[in-house]
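Query structure, 582 tokens:
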């Protein structure tokens, strides 16, 4: 078998050296290759031998033995670079880990380091680990990180994460990082559990990633003392530079919610020092249509547009991230011993590849390796089937009473505002942008309701089983439309459904536990753009409604959130109005 899980066995290692000795023929020979050596930051010429999924030789010689099965590719006129690394992926933003990896690999991103939050919320550990292991059989390299908090206020936070569960995740060989530390204020003061898990990650020689937007030098210093290695939350060159100066690796973000990369790279020109080796790229879980322009290939393109030296731009997309994760002996370069992730470019300054090798298999050249390897995933085997809701939404659930509402300052930041008059009518007027909002337990045990300002002036009801906690979000102006959208979401086994004037005007089925679709990325992009355009036409004032739905309950953002425990003042960590049992 060509696929391996987390290491090569002794028998395979002996075969690899036998290829060099001429006793075994390579699987692929890349002749006359001009390739980037990321260690020297130079373009070199030579021949590359690949045996199954591994590069076994790079140099001036051709092998003594070539079999009939050996594929010989003349690379004259092309430029070869290592496969790109997405160092911070959230593979559950309506798409799923497989569909994201499939799409990204076509654009040359052959390694992804993924968030495990939805796996914690939706699956038991056995099912989750089975998914992690099976995904190692894909042509891409799929790694994960272990969360130390829920990023919200769950009613059973202690049960959600305990010492044994977190340590078992950290011990898994596909898990290469602890964090991201969205709960860093608590870790700094009183969260000894989180601090213990950080130390366990360090003991296992795994990095810990921060989440420190706007953090002061003092805060960064203290979190460095506690064991943090990297942070991707910089929004300016000054913040990037301050992190590198203190010994952090800094992820440069280009995402749908924070497209900061062009500005940061322009500003970095004003800073002196050799800091590029400590920078890497991330798209930080962008919503689907943002990826139309590319994944990490687009980040490289932006870097080149802003004047970053060519070789440094490719290193930021490859070896820098590999070094950060202590995977430089395995990924991030075209050198002996590395996984055979190689991108073929028409020009050095055109980072979107024309051909891609991933684990020694062609991704978009003479067949597509994903379809060959796993044409029909049985998601239900991992516990990711349809969302089954066996309870009804009652009339008394749609009684909205709260002295405080949530006022959207942008897609994801919300401040409290005083509700001057509470309406118990069936329908709110379209003369203002205030809507009903409710978060209800997917098991039907509790609910919390309020008012949301800035989301819509016209939509009668939007119901989403996609949220940060996996619970059900309801937003709208008309209680009848909200009930209708809820019933349709139930019928679909999880979905985003929009109803206006008693008619379903949009639906996106989410058959993977109500959180993810099984559509291919190209199809999903069309549906997401349709939803965005629809909501904007009906009063949505910003650009990314998917992130609004996701982060309504996320307590790492200011100032007020609607969480499973209730309406919460994030800065004070106080529940202003508790959720109620149904």
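Result returned for the query:
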């Amino acid at each position: 078998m060509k696929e391996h899980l987390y290491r090569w066995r002794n028998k395979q290692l002996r075969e690899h050296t036998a290829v060099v000795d001429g006793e075994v023929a390579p699987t692929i020979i890349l002749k006359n290759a001009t390739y980037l050596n990321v260690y020297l930051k130079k373009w070199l010429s030579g021949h590359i031998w690949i045996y199954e999924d591994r590069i076994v030789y790079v140099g001036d010689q051709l092998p003594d033995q070539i079999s009939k099965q050996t594929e010989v590719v003349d690379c004259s006129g092309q430029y070869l670079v290592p496969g790109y690394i997405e160092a911070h992926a959230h593979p559950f933003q309506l798409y799923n880990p497989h569909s994201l990896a499939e799409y990204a690999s076509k654009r040359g991103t052959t390694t992804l380091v993924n968030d495990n939050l939805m796996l914690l919320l939706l699956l038991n550990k056995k099912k989750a680990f089975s998914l992690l292991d099976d995904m190692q059989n894909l042509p891409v390299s799929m790694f994960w990180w272990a969360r130390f908090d829920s990023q919200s206020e769950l009613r059973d936070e202690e049960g959600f994460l305990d010492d044994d569960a977190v340590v078992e995740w950290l011990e898994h060989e596909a898990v290469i990082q602890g964090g991201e530390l969205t709960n860093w204020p608590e870790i700094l003061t009183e969260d000894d559990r989180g601090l213990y898990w950080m130390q366990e990650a360090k003991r296992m020689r795994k990095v810990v990633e921060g989440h420190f937007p706007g953090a002061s030098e003092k805060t960064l210093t203290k979190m460095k003392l506690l064991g943090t290695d990297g942070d991707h939350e910089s929004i300016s060159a000054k913040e990037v530079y301050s992190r590198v100066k203190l010994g952090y690796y800094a992820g440069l973000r280009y995402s749908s919610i924070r497209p900061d990369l062009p500005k940061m790279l322009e500003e970095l020109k004003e800073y002196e020092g050799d800091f590029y080796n400590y920078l890497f790229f991330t798209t930080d879980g962008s919503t689907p249509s943002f990826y139309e322009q590319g994944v990490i290939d687009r980040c490289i393109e932006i870097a080149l547009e802003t004047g970053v030296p060519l070789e440094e731009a490719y290193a930021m997309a490859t070896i820098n991230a590999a070094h950060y994760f202590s995977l430089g002996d395995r990924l991030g370069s075209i050198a002996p011993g590395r996984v055979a992730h190689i991108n073929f470019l028409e020009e050095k300054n055109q980072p979107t590849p024309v051909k891609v090798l991933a684990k020694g298999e062609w991704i978009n050249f003479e067949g597509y390796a994903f379809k060959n390897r796993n044409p029909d995933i049985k998601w239900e085997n991992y516990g990711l089937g349809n969302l089954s809701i066996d309870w009804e939404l009652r009339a008394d659930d749609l009684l909205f009473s709260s002295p405080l509402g949530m006022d959207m300052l942008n897609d994801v930041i919300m401040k409290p505002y005083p509700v001057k008059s509470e309406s118990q009518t069936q329908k709110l007027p379209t003369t203002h942008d205030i809507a009903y909002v409710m978060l209800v337990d997917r098991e039907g045990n509790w609910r919390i309701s309020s008012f949301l300002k800035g989301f819509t002036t016209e939509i009668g009801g939007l119901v989403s089983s996609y949220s940060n906690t996996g619970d059900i979000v309801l937003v709208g102006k008309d209680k009848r439309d909200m009930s209708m959208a809820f019933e349709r979401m139930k019928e679909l086994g999880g979905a985003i459904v929009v109803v206006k004037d008693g008619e379903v005007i949009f639906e996106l089925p989410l058959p993977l536990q109500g959180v993810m679709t099984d559509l291919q990325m190209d199809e999903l992009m069309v549906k997401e753009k349709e939803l965005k355009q629809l909501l904007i036409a009906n009063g949505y004032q910003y650009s990314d409604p998917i992130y609004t739905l996701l982060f309504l309950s996320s307590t790492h953002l200011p100032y007020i959130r609607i969480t499973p425990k209730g309406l919460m003042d994030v800065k004070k960590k106080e529940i202003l109005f508790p959720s109620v049992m149904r």
